[in-house]
Amino acid sequence: MILRTAAEARAELQSKGISITQWAIANKFSPNLVFEVLGGRKKCVRGQAHEIAIKLGMKAGEICTDPANALCQTRRRSAA
C-alpha cells in the first residue's frame, strides 16, 4: 500500500471536485478535525484522527469498530 502525503490527499480531493468539508461530512467527521489532520496538527495515533488518516490514505492501519475486543485474536494459530 502506497501512502499519500497530506498534499497528495488534498490534490486527490481537488481533482475529483470534492472539498475537504464535503469529504468530512460525507464520512461523518468534523471538518475542523480533518483540516487539523491534513495540516499536521494531529498525531493521528488514536480515535477519529487515526480513522481520518487511514481513510485519506495517509496512514497504514486498521479501524477498530469494537475497542473492547481490539486485542482479541481473530486468527487461530495452526498446530505445529
Topology summary:
Blueprint: H1 6-15, H2 20-26, H3 31-38, H4 47-55
As a whole number of angstroms, the C-alpha radius of gyration is 15 Å
Order of helices and strands: HHHH
Strand element count: 0
Largest beta-sheet characterization:
none
Outline type: globular
How far apart, in Å, are the first and last alpha carbons?
31 Å
Description of the molecule:
The protein is mainly α and 80 residues long. It has one domain (6-67). The chain is 42% helix and 0% strand. The protein has four helices and no strands. The protein has helices at residues 6-15, 20-26, 31-38, 47-55. α2 (20-26) packs across α3 and α3 packs across α4. The N and C termini lie far apart (31 Å).
